[in-house]
Design a protein that fits this description.
Oligomer: single chain
Number of helices: 2
Helix content: over 70%
Largest sheet: none
Low-confidence stretches: none
Distance between the termini: 25 Å
Mean pLDDT: 89
């Protein structure tokens, strides 16, 4: 494989690996904002704290999957480097 295809794979993997945290942050952010609007709360730290906890839990739960995929991808890149013996 050439360098451009590796960069394309890296961009795809970055998108896939960050998607769970981004989706959870978006869903919790919208949910908390709607709840604040319904209850007429003006606290700015509430959505930040809720999203922080939700994203931390998501990263904790998906971290082993991401690390495993990263190791597999790194091994494939290192295996593609030609070995030049002495």
């Amino acid at each position: 494989m050439d360098t451009i295809s590796y960069f394309q794979q890296v961009l795809l993997y970055i998108t896939l690996w960050s998607a769970p945290a981004l989706i959870v942050a978006t869903v919790f952010g919208i949910g908390v904002s709607l709840l604040q609007a319904l209850m007429q709360l003006q606290d700015q730290t509430l959505p930040f704290f809720v999203k922080l906890v939700a994203v931390t839990v998501t990263i904790t739960l998906t971290g082993s999957w991401v690390a495993g995929q990263l190791v597999i991808f790194t091994k494939s890149i290192l295996d593609a480097i030609p070995y030049v013996g002495r």
